[in-house]
Amino acid sequence: MPKHILVVDDSKTVRNLVSFIMKSEGYKVTSAEDGLDALEKLYSIDDIDLIISDINMPHMDGLTFIKTLREQEKYRDIPIAVLSTEGQEKDIQLGMGLGANLYMVKPAQPEKMVKNVKMLLGC
């Protein structure tokens, strides 16, 4: 059974691109428009293995989303990779401090993104 990735980004273009890259590698992909949409999908899907999330999104930003997940026992251990335009050291430290496992700055190279996902999934 393929690993299942949740892609969270308010940009449809980014969601589609990341989803295409991950599907091309054989992963199952679900996408969400923001943190609230992602939580709704997580609560209804039991097999999410990894999350790739943006930071700057409406309704619920990526940092709040990560913090919310890490406060819940069920989601504490799901690997989370941030994919954001915010690439300053303070942004990276904040994301990692809230519980992200990896921080990638847009635009991320597809090969590097795939390599990082495989590393986080232990593949």
From TrEMBL:
Gene Ontology biological process terms from the UniProt entry: phosphorelay signal transduction system
InterPro entries: Bact_response_regulator (IPR050595), CheY-like_superfamily (IPR011006), Sig_transdc_resp-reg_receiver (IPR001789)
This protein's name: Two-component system, chemotaxis family, response regulator CheY
Modified residues (4-aspartylphosphate): 54
Natural source organism: Desulfovibrio litoralis DSM 11393
UniProt keyword terms in alphabetical order: Phosphoprotein
Domain Response regulatory: 4-121
Membrane-crossing segments per the record: none
SMART domains reported for this sequence: REC (SM00448)
